[in-house]
Task: structure prediction
Amino acid sequence: MTPGRPSASLQAGACAYGMLLTTTPSREEAQKIARLLIDEKLAACVQLLPIESFYVWEGKTQNEAEVLLLIKTRSGLFDRAIARVKQIHSYSVPEIVAMPFAAGFRGYFDWIDEVTAGAPGG
Result:
């Protein structure tokens, strides 16, 4: 491998793939969202992490335990996955943000394609 050059298995400019982030107030709700996205093939992988959040809501600073979902999928599925999360989320204004991947392992992207291939309209 030449210094400064990516290996053949690393795909640069991989904006066809990315990650959605959302938080939930409970592990049970996070698991429900994760299972739904996986079952509907809107995501290939969803990881759940316990976190502590500080934020302002209705003019007051809040401090709550939450669960962060890292949702890996194709960027072409972002809109449908966001709509689906919003549909079942308990928060009136949930955090649902998307981040495209700038680069990554081609084999991982191939796996995302395989797992999400049956998504309706995808």
Q: What stands out?
A: The chain has one domain: 13-114. The radius of gyration is 16 Å. Residues 43 and 73 are 5 Å apart (CA to CA).
